[in-house]
Amino acid sequence: MPNEPIKILAVDDIQENLVALEAALDQPGVELVTASSGLDALEYLLKDDFALALLDVQMPGMDGFELAELMRGTERTRGIPIIFLTAVATDERRKFRGFEAGAVDYLLKPLDITILNSKVAVFVELARQRREIANQRDELGAALGRLRAYGDNSLLATLEVDADLRILNWFKGAERTIGYHAQDMIGLRLQDAPFFLDEERASVQDAIRELLDSEGRRAVQDHRFRRADGARREGEWYASALPRSSGSHGSIMLSMIDVTERRRAERTQRLLIGELNHRVKNTLATVQAISSQGFRHARSPQDFQEAFTGRIQALSRAHSLLSATTWDSASLRHLVADQVAIGAIGEDRLRLSGPDIDLPPELALRFSLILHELATNAHKYGALSNETGTVSLSWTREGEWISLRWQEAGGPPVVKPERRGFGSSLIEGSLASDGARIHADYAPEGVRWDLMVPLVTGSECAACDEPETAALADLPASDTKACAPVQELAPAPPEPLPISEPQSEPAQAIPLPSLDNLRILIVEDEPLVAMELAMEIEDNGGIAIGPASSCEQAIGIIEQAHPDLALLDGNLNGERIDPVADALAAQDTPFAFVSGYDRQHLPANHGHRPMLAKPFLGREVHAVIAELAHEIRNTAG
């Protein structure tokens, strides 16, 4: 132990000599152990560690020379320095025997106390230094053992490289994480290490050299690596510079954790947050469109409030159904049951017939609104407006298509509407872009609606047996239905009444210019949002083309119709908009994004394009289009 005294053994058969030595060698931190014979001395030597042995030469039984020879023959006592003490005049021959027995000095009695103390002090100091070195050795060994245990048992892959970027140590953690064994890695330079990717090898070496040359001793770096099985992984490397005794950095300890799964989870989290943001804003834009379109067709504020509340409730219940299935699908039968639950259709007056079919999310939302509109109009004008009428709703599945029939009976005599109302506009607009076949029959005995809707949307218009893009190529939106025009659900309402007293335009508002018959492509998978954009375009003198609800449809329109401008959704039912943006850029067609995504989720090559965030105001749509039109004029000029 560090604070234990340094022990010296004194052996003499005369007790007075031992007492004199005890008095002479009274040094701090030194303990003198005395023995009166060689046998006693051997017993002490087996129990304790001694820094020095003072042996009398002439002793009965075993003399000093014999004791010294025994000490040199044992591993435990071989390294103890010996000083012989004798009162007998000696010659060179006796001295030689003493040194041959292992003595480091030979002193004659009577002893010079000063000389004795000086010689003893040298050996005491050497013993202290040996003890300190041993303690440091033990501490260093323990530290190295802990480091080895840490490197071997840690989840981190740990290795050490020297100033020449040669691998000095390769721990078990590195073997487990990276897959290579220590015997194959130790001695390799990093430039030859098989676990670094070729494209990143130079940057890894530069980063480590910079740490060696800088004053900083720690750094965190991101480098990909390749496991022994060939798999590419992402690593987070913690580098610590270990100094030499001179203070310069002698080596680098690298500890790496495989963060591939964590980075994947972070990317997924960012994607999910972006998708959530997109869905929420798309929903708000849909609600905005329902509000705007409903207000245009409302007879009165009360009529608007009732219609708007019912549509939002239908949309909300469809969202609840989708949320229950983690936004995977919704049962058509459950959608109908929800309309019954909210009182839109009386259970006793509804006849259902058809298999249980799961609808994809977007189609489920559209069907919920369609069913609500059909039920609302039946209540206002059709079979449910009296006490005896009934509704028959039947459907079948034909491959990837749903054939649905809404048949009313027993209501007032049906009169074919003269103008299109919001209900029929919603049905047409929400399904036509998917190639649905929609037909309304206004027979006097009851309205019948027939809908043939694809479960999987595509770019082929099944009703016309030709691509939708061909039908849309040169016509404005009002003339580009995928199928025959749908008849109205009800007579056209009068001009809508304002919710509050009309107010004059604010004095600071500056009228925006007319769009001058600009042909503007709408690429949007939310039908109601597309309807709202088309309305804003047409109200300001433009011509709306589309809408296109898939990249394939949009690219077909671009190639055939060559629109002047375009408004692009940031995502089409999970399909990235990049190909459409690239196609427009190739034709030098100005375009802007209308999206619920942030800019970081939009095509990276088109980050400079204007962006309109959902939900939007009509004037914002006009302003963005005016900005694009100004770009056309500048190019033409």
UniProtKB/TrEMBL annotation:
Domain PAS intervals: 161-215
A Pfam cross-reference name: HWE_HK
Gene3D superfamilies referenced in this protein's UniProt entry, alphabetically: 3.40.50.2300, Histidine kinase-like ATPase, C-terminal domain, PAS domain
Swiss-Prot/TrEMBL catalytic activity: ATP + protein L-histidine = ADP + protein N-phospho-L-histidine
Keyword Phosphoprotein: yes
Keyword Nucleotidyltransferase attached: no
Cross-referenced SUPFAM superfamilies: ATPase domain of HSP90 chaperone/DNA topoisomerase II/histidine kinase, CheY-like, PYP-like sensor domain (PAS domain)
Keyword line: ATP-binding, Kinase, Nucleotide-binding, Phosphoprotein, Transferase
Residue span(s) of domain Response regulatory: 7-124, 519-629
Residue positions, PTM 4-aspartylphosphate: D56, D569
EC number annotated for this UniProt entry: 2.7.13.3
Residues in coiled coil: none
NCBIfam families documented for this protein: sensory_box (TIGR00229)
Name of the protein this chain belongs to: histidine kinase
Organism of provenance: Novosphingobium decolorationis
